[in-house]
Amino acid sequence: MMEKPTGGEAAAGFTHFDAEGRAVMVDVSDKDITERTATARGSVFMRPETLALIMSGGLKKGDVLSVARLAGIMGAKRTPDLIPLCHPLALTSVKVDLTCDPERNAVDITSTCKLKGRTGVEMEALTAVSVAALTVYDMCKAVDRGMTIGDVSLLHKAGGKSGDYGTAP
């Protein structure tokens, strides 16, 4: 009897499906431990008055940027609870930066996640940005329900077998 591939080891390489087509977590145990970094970005677009309230600290819910920064860090750490089949990772660093851009009426968010491990941190960086953006929305929705979240994307990834992607952060 032939043994079935385990943990996503299929004839075609790494996949989230086993030989029977069932969803599985990819087995990364044979991959090398390397330093891995990923940087993602996104923006929350809003009315000028809303951005002015954020910048002045005038929102009743408090310091939007500080709360969103903390939420983004917490979101990165909880990625495997939010995204099916993501590996739980021992992140060594999560950085979330938020800046206000009055010319675009936006809060721009950038996150960089790092670790030494067998799998990358792209999903963690993207999750950090997304959770921080949702937190900005949540804290400001009483004054601006028309905000939009957009431009969420991976800017850079380094480490691992697939090599680097994007430009250095």
From TrEMBL:
<feature type="binding site">
    <location>
        <begin position="85"/>
        <end position="87"/>
    </location>
    <ligand>
        <name>substrate</name>
    </ligand>
</feature>
<protein>
    <recommendedName>
        <fullName>Cyclic pyranopterin monophosphate synthase</fullName>
        <ecNumber>4.6.1.17</ecNumber>
    </recommendedName>
</protein>
<dbReference type="Pfam" id="PF01967">
    <property type="entry name" value="MoaC"/>
</dbReference>
<comment type="function">
    <text>Catalyzes the conversion of (8S)-3',8-cyclo-7,8-dihydroguanosine 5'-triphosphate to cyclic pyranopterin monophosphate (cPMP).</text>
</comment>
<feature type="active site">
    <location>
        <position position="138"/>
    </location>
</feature>
<dbReference type="InterPro" id="IPR050105">
    <property type="entry name" value="MoCo_biosynth_MoaA/MoaC"/>
</dbReference>
<dbReference type="InterPro" id="IPR036522">
    <property type="entry name" value="MoaC_sf"/>
</dbReference>
<dbReference type="InterPro" id="IPR047594">
    <property type="entry name" value="MoaC_bact/euk"/>
</dbReference>
<dbReference type="InterPro" id="IPR002820">
    <property type="entry name" value="Mopterin_CF_biosynth-C_dom"/>
</dbReference>
<feature type="binding site">
    <location>
        <begin position="123"/>
        <end position="124"/>
    </location>
    <ligand>
        <name>substrate</name>
    </ligand>
</feature>
<dbReference type="GO" id="GO:0006777">
    <property type="term" value="P:Mo-molybdopterin cofactor biosynthetic process"/>
</dbReference>
<keyword id="KW-0501">Molybdenum cofactor biosynthesis</keyword>
<comment type="subunit">
    <text>Homohexamer; trimer of dimers.</text>
</comment>
<dbReference type="GO" id="GO:0061799">
    <property type="term" value="F:cyclic pyranopterin monophosphate synthase activity"/>
</dbReference>
<comment type="pathway">
    <text>Cofactor biosynthesis; molybdopterin biosynthesis.</text>
</comment>
<feature type="domain" description="Molybdopterin cofactor biosynthesis C (MoaC)">
    <location>
        <begin position="25"/>
        <end position="160"/>
    </location>
</feature>
<keyword id="KW-0456">Lyase</keyword>
<dbReference type="InterPro" id="IPR023045">
    <property type="entry name" value="MoaC"/>
</dbReference>
<comment type="similarity">
    <text>Belongs to the MoaC family.</text>
</comment>
